[in-house]
Amino acid sequence: MNIVSKKAFEELKIAKRSLTNNNFALDQKVLEIINCVREEGDKALYRYTAIFDGVHLEQLTVTHEEFKEARNFVTEDFVKSIRKAKSNIIAFHEVQLEQSWFINQEDGITLGQQVTPIDSVGIYVPGGKAVYPSTVLMNVLPAKLAGVEKIAIVTPPQANGKVNPHVLVAAQESGVDTVYKIGGAQAIAALAYGTETVEKVAKITGPGNTYVARAKKWVFGDVAIDMIAGPSEICILADETSNAVFVAADLLSQAEHDEQACAICVTTSQSLANNLIGELNEQISHLERVDIVKKSIANNGYIIVVDTLQEAFEFINELAPEHLQLMIDRAIEHLPSIRNAGAIFIGDYSPEALGDYMAGPNHTLPTNGTAAFSSPLGVYDFVKKSSVIHYSKKAFDEVATDIITIAEAESLTAHANAIKVRGGL
Fold this sequence. Notes:
By secondary structure, this protein is α/β, with parallel strands linked by helices. It is built from 16 helices and 14 strands. The strands form three sheets. It has a six-stranded parallel β-sheet with strand order 1-11-10-9-12-13, sandwiched between helices. Strands 6-5-4-7-8 form a five-stranded parallel β-sheet, with helices on both faces. Strands 2-3-14 form a three-stranded antiparallel β-sheet. Helix 7 links the parallel strand 5 and strand 6 (179-180). The termini are far apart.
């Protein structure tokens, strides 16, 4: 991890962006996979699973027996922890529930908005470099609260042809009993267009690798998606009061996701920056995923030294990080200075890992600067809204002439006529 100035980091970021903008080759491969799944259905899914996962499946759907067997491979402590996290996630997301509303005006006018759940959702749960039962909870539970009736999970199979038992138990605990052993762009295509086995859904959510992200981009419009998620990110704001041990541990907690994960510390303290280098090197040596962490830190890890907190806030709002930790003196007082961040963690004892698993707010968050205009996954992502309009004859007559005037100004005479035939005008 390098210590750089804000200006130097911005130059690096621009250079890296120019190198990653060209996704032509990746898109060509993803589109080929999508088209094959559309044309060949299950046959393509079996073939791609053999190619990409090295597994020759006999069936694509997890059976009742496999769900039952999964319970034998997880501990009771895991089940208890999942249930505790589930309770916290539900408690947080229940507050997001929206109600239909109506306004009854004078003269027989009723206006409103009807809120209804999306009919069906497909959730992608990664299973490559790591396993994510927490992603099951974070995606399924808000959908359940919204009232979605059909929820299916897609996730890559393990080498033994089965889905990770922790994922299956999390699915059961969340109330999902349809899980497909499919990963990658082919899984997104199957959810978007359907196959003999996989039922088409109305919306796809959940994170994944670059193939999954690009596939979601290409099927958007035929189905809805939550977001196009990039590699995971963390930004920590630190000062001379910050605990370098905590800061290092939290940076590394994101770096272990994959080699492309981004870990940044912004600090007003040169001494903290210097101490952090030594602490990172010490902690890395004790981690299980040391190779991934080292590559991530080397390629995408930065300590950025700024002169003032105001400069730091400006930088953070421009960066719009997925995860932001405020580990500075009187951190909560500075919350209003943050405009762009997916999730904000305040103080020494609110690490990003707390949000990943247990706190309750969703850990499916906007990445790659999209926190500047988008939000964490929530119940609101699993509902749709319809406007409701009712006019009585009397109320209609009072506005008929105005509607005709506007319609004729737009040369939409059929619109005007639809009013005239009702009003005798």
